[in-house]
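Hi P.,

Sorry for the delay on this. The queue was packed all week, but I finally got your sequence through. Input first:
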Amino acid sequence: MWSSRAGQAPIYALKADFFRVLGHPARVRLLELLREGEHSVGALRDALELDSSGTSQHLAALRERGLLVSRKEATSVYYRIRDPRTLELLDLAKQIISGALEENRALLDDLAVEDFGPRPGRD
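Then the structure:
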């Protein structure tokens, strides 16, 4: 069992929950859409091509973890990214993924030019 101080979850459990929330493609897409600034729920829904319920659930999950803030204007709700470091995290993830893909591409290139010698049964 995990030990905790003052009833708080261990920091690694909090970090895991943070990354779990980011573990859905629609949520990452929402954050990318909000990179340029505030958007209404309707605009985000249209960009994601999801229904209102699905969009609202993803927005709520991100808001509950403190990644987004919202404001209401008349009958519309607008969202924006709370902390710009969230975008830095997405950029860092992109760099890590790109680096791994580059390594794989280099391996594929090496395999493509590798000479395995004569093949049995071929003249």
